[in-house]
């Protein structure tokens, strides 16, 4: 890394005049539009083309530099990259935002309006996909040679709307609007095989009678902040291979293929909308193999172009990170190539794999751990199934045997193949075990989570390989999640601690620490509070436009935005809001500040209870927002179609950040970091990265409540009956009864049954147990809000203490402890 890159990097030489010239050129020559007929949408496209040109030029230069330096590259394999809008972010990273603003102004257009015309590529579900995007930003910013590999889905995560308060999904054909970022690279296309059978010829395995799919790469340039490094996000699109299934074509049956198997084009058609719950469908397995096979072939081709055919150096030049187990089939795929195509013996192939691969675990939820039926893998990828058996045999009979000689029970427990519990059941391939066995490092995503990975998820692996399981706490890019989404706060920080090359918090987030000195300063507090107020005014306008609800910027904005999942406990927030409403009805003159509870969340389309929670929140919102008796003291807003672009508007306007998962279930969370960075106070359990956030900000500056991981385990062990809590807490009982009564949804009185049954019939996520502590924590929030100087002091300390949670720090941790690159 160079010390002072800002002086030498290329894009900043573009002044407003030259930019305006380029914009005009693209309007006329690339888009065929006259200046007079161009609106913000056309200006968006033209400016994007200008930036794309810059990006492509810098990608080329980055590639040359890397080729000369012959450094190790990291390949980040992920089924999801939730990148969000790119134009504004790229302008910031390239250091030409101001110039672009001026150029647009000279052309008579407002850059902010122009940026609103970008569709948000929703190529991910939630945290896992967004983390991949933050990591790509940091890899480029840190000048680390990296490729992201994923799928160019035609349809991203579904669009969400509400009808009568219920979630309604519609397809997100994001590419139908023009998308100038992806550049098709036919020269780098790949042909991959599926199905067929394996024969042996001259002692060698031959995979034949296969069907072929073509993978076409689309490259998205990934700019870094203040550097010329531009990395590549290569997203594969599936196409029918030439000559694909000609027999059915001849017979006029070109909708079907030979054996009714999956159509090539369908493979990259749609992102599966499940988070923390695998779909288990053949098409999903094919998606996984498709992008893995294309990517591995692509990176091997690059290695050979740069280093020749010598496999001895492969692991020195290549590091592959598996983002969860979704790309785990990469392990047998690389083994297959090494053994069947490169004539490398099994033991050497396995040791190459283990040097190259590492795996990130993002969940402990048992139902979220991927397992594939052995029969399905045998059908779709027969050679891979054989290789998985070979790996498993070696692992069990050499490695497990050495550690626990003669212990067949242990072999059964650790086997990559899970035997059926009941006769007639299926054998399943445990993708997490395959990933652990095939990797040299396995990491969790926050300290608490990584500890649990060691002690509860993989204790035996940890015993066998004490150095394999490690922690890398997640982070977020401060460029998007502070500089870009909260420009006023970024400016206040610049004005206070400087921005002169020596101080550059955008690249070295720990420098925010200097803000701590101003936490008590009334003048600084005033400015900090005023910025939050401005952000709230802007956000209130968004709420008005999207939901037609009036909210006051003087109210506490209390926000829970994340996927809808019972473990994340939006239902706890809901029960508490219902109780607040009842308290106000009992006493409309209650001396409490105005509060607005804001939600944003999509539920997996097949997840019944999650959808019920959305419906219930919407119905409560409707009731509360239209009740004059409570004098606007309480408002509830559920923003439809929550996505990155909305997050960028909500987070800078939040006062309170809800991070209230059942302890032990949220691996890390990353929204929690974004809120604290923007000066919101967290109410949260000791779960995921909340623990480390609390360590950084100090216990006085966060509202921690509820059962700890150990207490959760103990309670489960003792046995727990939710009815006991329900019967002993009058307020809680009243709101659950109200939910069950049908009053909130008279036309469908049983609408909320699934939620009520889940709470009273087991309460797996311990919502009721934590209710009182949660309500008490909110009382403390209100008490603090009533002392503004105290509130703003805490808020400022939150922003000042987030240095650790930059994704630059996460990436440096990966580079040092996993990739051996720094
Ligand atoms: O990954 C999330 C974790 O829940 C969150 O705690 C963590 O901060 C974040 C980044 O490490 N996990 C997901 O977002 N998981 C998925 O989206 C997912 C998608 C498809 C699946 C399984 C999980 O099949």
Automatic annotation (TrEMBL):
Keyword vocabulary terms for this entry: Carbohydrate metabolism, Glycosyltransferase, Pyridoxal phosphate, Transferase
Obligatory cofactor(s): pyridoxal 5'-phosphate
EC number, as in UniProt: 2.4.1.1
Annotated SUPFAM superfamilies: UDP-Glycosyltransferase/glycogen phosphorylase
GO molecular function: glycogen phosphorylase activity; pyridoxal phosphate binding
GO BP: glycogen catabolic process
Catalytic activity: [(1->4)-alpha-D-glucosyl](n) + phosphate = [(1->4)-alpha-D-glucosyl](n-1) + alpha-D-glucose 1-phosphate
A Pfam family per the record: Phosphorylase
Modified residues (N6-(pyridoxal phosphate)lysine): 674
An annotated GO cellular component: cytoplasm
Function: Allosteric enzyme that catalyzes the rate-limiting step in glycogen catabolism, the phosphorolytic cleavage of glycogen to produce glucose-1-phosphate, and plays a central role in maintaining cellular and organismal glucose homeostasis.
Entry's family note: Belongs to the glycogen phosphorylase family.
Protein name: Alpha-1,4 glucan phosphorylase
Species of provenance: Endozoicomonas montiporae
């Amino acid at each position: 890394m160079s010390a002072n890159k800002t002086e030498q990097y290329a894009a900043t030489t573009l002044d407003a005049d030259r930019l305006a010239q380029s914009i005009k050129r693209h309007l006329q020559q690339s888009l065929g539009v006259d200046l007079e007929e161009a609106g913000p949408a056309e200006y968006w496209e033209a400016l994007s083309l200008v930036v794309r040109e810059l990006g492509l030029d810098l990608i080329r230069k980055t590639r040359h530099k890397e080729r000369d330096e012959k450094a190790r590259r990291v390949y980040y394999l992920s089924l999801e990259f939730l990148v969000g809008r790119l134009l504004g972010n790229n302008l910031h990273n390239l250091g030409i935002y101001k110039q672009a603003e001026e150029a647009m102004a000279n052309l008579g257009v407002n850059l902010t309006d122009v940026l609103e015309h970008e569709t948000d590529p929703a190529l991910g579900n939630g945290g896992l996909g967004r983390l991949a995007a933050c990591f790509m930003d940091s890899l480029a910013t840190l000048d680390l040679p990296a490729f992201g590999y994923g799928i160019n889905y035609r349809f991203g995560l579904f669009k969400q709307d509400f009808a009568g308060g219920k979630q309604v999904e519609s397809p997100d054909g994001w590419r139908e609007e023009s998308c100038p970022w992806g550049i098709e690279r036919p020269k780098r296309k790949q042909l991959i095989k599926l199905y067929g059978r394996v024969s042996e010829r001259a002692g060698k395995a031959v995979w034949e009678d296969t069907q072929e799919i073509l993978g076409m790469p689309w490259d998205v340039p990934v700019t870094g902040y203040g550097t010329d490094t531009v990395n590549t996000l290569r997203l594969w699109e599936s196409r029918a291979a030439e000559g694909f299934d000609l027999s059915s074509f001849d017979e006029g049956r070109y909708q079907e293929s030979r054996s009714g198997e999956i159509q090539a084009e369908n493979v990259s058609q749609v992102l599966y909308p499940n988070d923390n719950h695998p779909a288990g469908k053949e098409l999903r397995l094919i998606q996984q193999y498709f992008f893995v096979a294309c990517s591995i072939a692509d990176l091997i081709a690059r290695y050979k172009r740069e280093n020749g055919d010598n496999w001895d150096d492969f692991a020195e030049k290549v590091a592959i990170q598996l983002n969860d187990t979704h790309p785990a089939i990469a392990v047998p795929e690389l083994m297959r190539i090494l053994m069947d195509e490169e004539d490398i013996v099994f033991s050497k192939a396995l040791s190459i794999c283990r040097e190259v691969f590492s795996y990130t675990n993002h969940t402990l939820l048992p139902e979220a751990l991927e397992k594939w039926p052995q029969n399905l893998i045998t059908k779709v990828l027969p050679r891979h199934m054989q290789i998985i058996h070979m790996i498993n045999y070696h692992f069990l009979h050499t490695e497990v045997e050495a550690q626990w000689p003669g212990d067949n029970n242990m072999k059964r427990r650790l086997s990559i193949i899970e035997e059926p519990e009941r006769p007639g059941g299926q054998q399943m391939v445990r993708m997490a075990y395959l990933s652990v066995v095939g990797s040299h490092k396995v990491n969790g995503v926050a300290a608490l989570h990584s500890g649990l990975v060691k002690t509860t998820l993989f204790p035996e692996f940890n015993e066998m390989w004490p150095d394999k399981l490690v922690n890398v706490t997640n982070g977020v890019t401060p460029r998007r999640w502070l500089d870009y989404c909260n420009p006023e706060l970024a400016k206040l920080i610049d004005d206070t601690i400087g921005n002169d090359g020596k101080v550059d918090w955008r690249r070295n987030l720990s420098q925010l620490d200097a803000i701590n000195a101003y936490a008590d300063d009334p003048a600084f507090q005033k400015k900090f509070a005023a910025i939050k107020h401005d952000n709230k005014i802007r956000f209130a306008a968004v709420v008005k436009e999207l939901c037609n609800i009036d909210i006051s910027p003087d109210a506490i904005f209390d926000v829970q935005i994340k996927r809808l999942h019972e473990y994340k406990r939006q239902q706890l927030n809901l029960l508490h809001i219902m109780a607040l409403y009842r308290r106000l009805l009992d006493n409309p003159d209650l001396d409490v500040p105005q509060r607005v509870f804001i939600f944003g969340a999509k539920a997996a389309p097949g997840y019944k209870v999650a959808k019920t929670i959305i419906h219930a929140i919407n119905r409560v919102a409707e009731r509360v927002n239209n009740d004059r008796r409570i004098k606007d003291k309480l408002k509830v807003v559920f923003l439809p179609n929550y996505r990155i672009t909305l997050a960028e508007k909500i987070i800078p306007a939040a006062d309170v950040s809800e991070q209230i998962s059942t302890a032990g279930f949220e691996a890390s969370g990353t929204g929690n970091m974004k809120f604290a960075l923007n000066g919101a106070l967290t109410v949260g359990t000791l779960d995921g990265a909340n623990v480390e956030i609390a360590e950084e900000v100090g216990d006085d500056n966060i509202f921690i409540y509820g059962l700890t991981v150990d207490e959760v385990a103990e309670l489960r062990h003792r046995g727990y009956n939710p009815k006991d809590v329900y019967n002993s807490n009058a307020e809680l009982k009243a709101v659950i009864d109200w939910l069950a009564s049908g009053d909130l949804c008279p036309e469908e009185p049983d609408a909320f049954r699934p939620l009520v049954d889940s709470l009273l019939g087991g309460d797996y996520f311990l919502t009721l147990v934590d209710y009182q502590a949660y309500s008490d924590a909110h009382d403390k929030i209100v008490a603090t809000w009533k002392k503004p100087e105290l509130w703003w002091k805490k808020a400022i300390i939150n922003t000042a203490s987030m240095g650790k949670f930059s994704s630059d720090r996460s990436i440096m941790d990966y580079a040092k402890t996993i990739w051996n690159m720094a």
